[in-house]
What we know:
- This protein is α/β, with parallel strands linked by helices.
- It folds into 2 domains: 63-99 and 342-455, Aspartate Aminotransferase, domain 1 (Alpha-Beta Complex); 106-340, Aspartate Aminotransferase, domain 2, CATH 3.40.640.
- It has helices spanning 12-25, 53-65, 106-119, 134-147, 158-169, 184-193, 205-213, 239-249, 271-275, 304-313, 315-318, 325-340, 342-361, 382-394, 424-443, 448-455; strands at residues 83-86, 89-93, 151-155, 175-179, 196-200, 222-227, 252-256, 284-288, 298-302, 374-378, 397-398, 400-402, 413-417.
- The longest helix is centred in the last third of the chain and has 20 residues, at 342-361.
- Mean pLDDT is 91; it is low at 1-8 and 25-30.
- The structure holds pyridoxal-5'-phosphate (PLP).
Amino acid sequence: MKMGGQSKNLTEEQRKSVISKVRQRRNQSPRRKVKVSTHKEQKKADFSELPGFKDMQTQKVFADFIEIENPFFRTHESRASAETTIGGNTVINFASYDYLGLNGHPAVQIAAKEAIDRYGISASASRIVGGERPIHRTLENKVAEIYGTEDAVVFVSGHATNVSTIGQIMQPDDLIIHDAFIHNSILMGIKLSGANQKSFRHNDIDNLELLLASQTDRTGQVLVVVEGIYSMDGDYPDLPRILALKKKYNFWLMVDEAHALGVLGKTGKGLAEHFEIDPSLVDIWMGTFSKTLAGCGGYIAGSRDLTDYIKFSASGFVYSVGMPPPIASSVCRAIEIMLDQPDRVQRLQANGKYFVDAVKKAGFDTGASEGYAVVPIMIGDSIKATVLASKLLGNGVNVLPIIYPAVSESAARLRFFISSEHTKEHLESAIERLQLASQLYEENPISVENLAKLLL
Ligand SMILES: Cc1ncc(COP(=O)(O)O)c(C=O)c1O
């Protein structure tokens, strides 16, 4: 595709104007009010009037116009690890969370197979009414041991863990204060709880204190929620400072360790181990099994009062099937390997540091990333990020663009997940290919003006 002109980041206004041009071209009308049909014959449901539907279409139209394949829903034809197979080609993979390379570990696979032989695939019921298997409690004990808490409870979904827990323990009179970059599952939990909500600037503990100081007349409970490692940015919060504020302002503290377990600390026990802090100072540890532990589902670790209350009341636990026994079993084995083989954690940490330093040296912006498993390369332009990801795949590197509306347009990026299984050659050739793709793009950028010309 030949297109000259200056590359330019899309501002929100420019983006809106391009979208409206796309809509004109496609002759799409704005959202109509849905009327109750008076026809005898029932009309077919029209989901295209849903809010956000046209934005979704617009993204597809963008991709068509710039003649690249949609980067989302790429199919992997093999187990995705440091390498994977896409479209019949072996490529270096930076789009999977298997941080410690446990997804293909023979002992983890055997644990799943043994559980299938013993219990079958499904728990076949909610745990509260017939779905309980011994492996569920074994897993909960292992999670509680990691954090030194009284107990833990596991859910079938990491996302549902946050939604159901926050939705259940917080009430409309309460206040939830969270980091501005907090994960969607926490935001959905807040919505469900009906609690008041305030966010502080990302990782800005002074700003958190300002919010706390303004709440001294409040009667309800205050919950502060942060992540162990931020999933889009790869940085982490200053836990010691937050704990000092907790002493002063007496709030509940919840840490989502989805991307921190297996990644931070000498043995992968997460943020508390990283800071060498007693984990019992945090009230609610949350995490997922889908990242480091190569399974799926989520956990809450804390006091027995908390875990008992969740088990008897959180809707995503009570009204949802128990975790499939093969997953519970394989996650147990993955935890054992993580703890027995800290060299995996050390390899991951060394790879992350090496990558972030080398990428910076090559002239790219890695944002706030500390080089622990998640490394964004800031592009600042959704179209450019998408084109670069497409060029990289063509050149043997699978990495996904994170674009508007998942992040603001100026924060569009390529997000690299690093694993203990990546070799130096993987990391170096990814950077070389990224440099090449960037150069090619700069020689032939897709400017807003050119895009608009194409659209009209
Ligand atoms: C910070 C964070 N919390 C929760 C979740 C939800 O976890 P899961 O994908 O295991 O449902 C994610 C998922 O990516 C996450 O990044």
